[in-house]
Design brief:
Elements: E1 2-6, H1 18-32, E2 36-42, H2 45-50, E3 55-62, E4 65-75, E5 81-88, H3 110-125, E6 137-141, H4 147-153, E7 160-165, E8 173-174, H5 176-180, E9 195-196, E10 199-201, H6 203-209, E11 212-215, H7 218-223, H8 234-239, E12 244-246, H9 275-287, E13 296-304, H10 310-316, E14 324-332, H11 334-346, E15 351-355, H12 359-368, E16 371-374, H13 384-390, E17 394-398, H14 401-406, H15 412-417, E18 423-425, H16 430-444, H17 447-459, H18 465-483
Helix pairs in contact: 1-18, 3-4, 4-6, 9-12, 10-16
This protein binds adenosine-5'-diphosphate and alpha-D-glucopyranose.
Length: 484
């Protein structure tokens, strides 16, 4: 079975968030199951540099743009290497973040850039670009790849299509002249096409046209069918409920392993746990926090946007209990950056904030913190709570989406039966968040239940094995049905 995965980011070539982690790991896991999975991404300069063995394999003109198809491969952790295609056109020749400029402002031509990417990926999937390979199934991720199922729907003999929603809040909205400039069929300017309140929503290319829809946790698959979480698209998703399912993300357990992590000062596992304390002291020193073994050190690593509940945390900070320290790493909205900077300035030695994107520091926070905060308003899956569990760092989460699905609250009953793995905050509010932090602090004072929480979390298996199997089954089912 030949499967082409298409997305705007994939670690280790380019990553801004969890999409990159998932698209970086899933194809390798699929290849481990014998699926001929391949990846296609835009050839951002950094991605091209990171894929050192990429060679041009085809050239073409697409909707007026010169395009070169590059092909290279990446190690997967298993025996097989992962073939990777990069779409090189002028539109992607910009340094830095794939989506925005150095001031965090989205490139205004993003819809056109990713429409071009989708045209190229469709041609590749159909065997029009690299004649030695075509796809049986195309798996497109998020709005940047949304037009791919739509373009493929125009071909009578085409691969099956799967579209995965990693975040419904990002919709690829485009209006007026810009929309006209995309050269899409006039029939798509309708409610059952891409039209969305007078604009086009490129995510609808996936939602309306793909044969199968998935999202990244079972809970989020339910939530997005409600007005509260549906971002205006819940009606369409209810309409397509029979082809929509939630498949929980996995994590790359080689990259995120406290026993081998090269970013850490000391490595540890559930049996040899002593080095966690050394990581904590090192983190406190690195970030200018008071080096106090008894303090509850709470970490947070996140994009700094409304979704992530950063404002809830900011409101709670002045009332943080004595004995709690906070280490935050993040980049995003300028207002959150400024507010976190001010909070750290107001409570030096207790609150540390590092602005920016820093992969090794993200690992050191996971290892050095005692607890890890994910106070999201909504969270399709969330990956940092998985990393925290694996690093023996107790997650404090809101009860939404994948967080709801993956953390078992430390209620007296769950503590007694040994199923508790973290602290679940009763509502996305600063009062509830503060109460959850206080509850965590109280639990932390008592060694035995705390150690049990850590052990239960570390014993969980969140590797890709079962999720990759679920995707492989979905692809196979889709092919079987299209043959019959
Ligand atoms: P989202 O995709 O919504 O941002 P996830 O929890 O799925 O949320 O994934 C976030 C990923 O990005 C994790 O791997 C996390 O460690 C990483 N990350 C987020 N912000 C930063 C940062 N400032 N520096 C390093 N890694 C970060
Ligand atoms: C999105 C979501 C996040 C999810 C990630 C990977 O960025 O916000 O919850 O974990 O995609 O699927």
């Amino acid at each position: 079975m030949r499967v082409l995965l298409a997305a705007s980011e994939a670690w280790p070539l380019v990553k801004t968030g969890g999409l990159g982690d998932v698209v970086g790991a899933l194809p390798g896991a699929l290849r481990g199951l014998g699926v001929d999975a391949r990846l296609v991404l835009p050839a951002y300069p950094a991605a091209r540099a990171a894929l050192a063995n990429a060679e041009p394999v085809a050239r073409s003109a697409l909707y007026g743009a010169d395009m070169t198809l590059l092909r290279g491969d990446l190690p997967t952790g298993g025996r097989r290497r992962l073939p990777v295609y990069l779409i090189a056109t002028d539109a992607f020749e910009r340094p830095g973040n794939p989506y925005h400029d150095a001031d965090n402002v989205d490139w205004p031509d993003n819809p056109a850039r990713f429409a071009l990417f989708c045209r190229a990926a469709a041609a590749l999937a159909l065997g029009h670009l690299a004649p030695d390979w075509c796809a049986d199934v195309v798996h497109a991720h998020d709005w940047q790849a949304g037009l791919l199922p739509a373009f493929l729907s125009l071909h009578p003999r085409r691969p099956g299509t799967v579209f995965t929603i990693h975040n419904l809040a990002y919709q690829g909205l485009v209006d007026g002249d810009a929309a006209a400039g995309l050269g899409l069929p006039a029939a798509w300017w309708q409610m059952d096409g891409l039209e969305f309140f007078g604009q086009l929503a490129l995510i609808k290319g996936g939602l309306a046209f793909a044969d199968r829809l998935t999202t990244v946790s079972p809970r989020y698959a339910q939530e997005i069918q409600t007005p509260a979480f549906g971002c205006g698209l819940d009606g369409l998703l209810r309409h397509r409920a029979d082809v929509l399912s939630g498949i929980l993300n996995g994590i790359d357990t080689a990259q995120w392993n406290p026993a081998t992590d090269p970013a850490l000062l000391g490595r540890y596992d559930a049996e040899h746990f002593d080095a966690k304390a050394a990581n904590k002291a090192a983190l406190q020193r690195e970030l200018g926090l008071a080096v106090r073994p008894q303090a509850l050190l709470v970490g947070l690593v996140s994009r700094l946007v409304q979704q992530k509940g950063i404002d809830l945390l900011l409101d709670a900070l002045p009332r943080l209990p004595d004995g709690v320290q906070l280490a935050v790493l993040g980049s995003g909205d300028a207002a959150f950056v400024a507010a976190l900077r001010a909070a750290a300035g107001a409570q030096p030695g207790r609150i540390a904030f590092v602005a920016g994107y820093d992969e090794p520091l993200a690992h050191r926070i996971q290892a050095g913190a005692d607890a890890f905060l994910v106070p999201s308003r909504f969270e399709p899956c969330g990956l940092t709570q998985f990393y925290a569990l694996r690093y023996g760092t107790v997650p404090i989460v809101t009860a939404v989406g994948g967080l709801f699905d993956t953390v078992t609250d430390a209620t007296p009953a769950h503590l007694a039966d040994g199923s508790a793995t973290g602290i679940v905050c009763s509502a996305p509010s600063s009062a509830a968040l503060l109460a959850a932090i206080v509850r965590t602090h109280t639990l932390y004072q008592d060694d035995r239940p705390w150690r049990q929480l850590q052990r239960t979390g570390m014993a969980k298996d969140h590797s890709w094995a079962s999720s990759a199997q679920a995707y492989a089954t979905l692809y196979r089912d889709l092919l079987d049905r299209s043959r019959n």
